[in-house]
Design goal:
The structure is a homodimer. Chain A has about 130 residues and is an alpha+beta fold. Chain A is built from three helices and nine strands; from the N terminus they run E-E-H-E-E-E-H-E-E-H-E-E. The first copy, chain A, has helices at about 10-20, 55-60, 95-100; strands at about 1-5, 5-10, 25-30, 35-45, 45-50, 65-75, 80-90, 115-120, 125-130. The first copy, chain A, has a six-stranded antiparallel β-barrel. In chain A, strand 1 and strand 2 (about 5-10) form a beta hairpin. The relative contact order of chain A is 0.26. The interface of A and B includes residues 4 and 27 of A.
Chain lengths: ~130, ~130
Amino acid sequence: VSIYGLEVLERSECERLLETQRVGRVGLCGDEPAILPVVYAMHNGDVVFRTAPGAKLIAALLDQVVVFEVDDYDVERHAGWSVNVVGSATEIVHPAELAKADTLGLQPWAGSARDRFVRVVADRVSGRRIVQPA
Amino acid sequence: VSIYGLEVLERSECERLLETQRVGRVGLCGDEPAILPVVYAMHNGDVVFRTAPGAKLIAALLDQVVVFEVDDYDVERHAGWSVNVVGSATEIVHPAELAKADTLGLQPWAGSARDRFVRVVADRVSGRRIVQPA
């Protein structure tokens, strides 16, 4: 399926692409919309990232539905794809789950205070890729 | 000013960084939140991108407040920055403005049907950069 030159990706392909990146972006609605980059990993099909106390963590604590995005593109070739994951964000607080999250290689890039873990449940996964001219 | 290892950027630095990228992302709230990559250019301090009829254009037509994001990062060096622009999105319909928008180098990457132009007014601009260890 293709719409306006964009191929609609199967969920399995989206899941494969989600494993290829290290940095994604979390979108927050609310009074002031924001898109914030995060270092993430996939775990049991869901998105896990570290954060410091702040907007992202507040969203998680409130069980908000958030959108998480990854993409990759090539400016020269006009190639690229993007994947969106939409689901509720929750803080990981169970000790066994926290211990597991700590093994996902999510060392913080910016300071060591980023010690809370958030999971975005992959309720809805969608993706699109630019169709290259034949 | 730095918060949790992130330097809060001045508006002038955000505006400089906005000129350095070609691809950004538009965040849409509403029933189904989404983050969609777009090819963009800056014009008179605002964000301009092309789109096809769809969620992004609908948002524009409804004068919604949207968030536009650009970032750049280096996985090896753990370096990076991001900028958010928040403001109302409107379709560019005035002939003179359309003619100008057509000169911004926004050739579509995915098919030629992407022939509508949207402006996001840069009401609020914010940015952060990862502070590198000394």
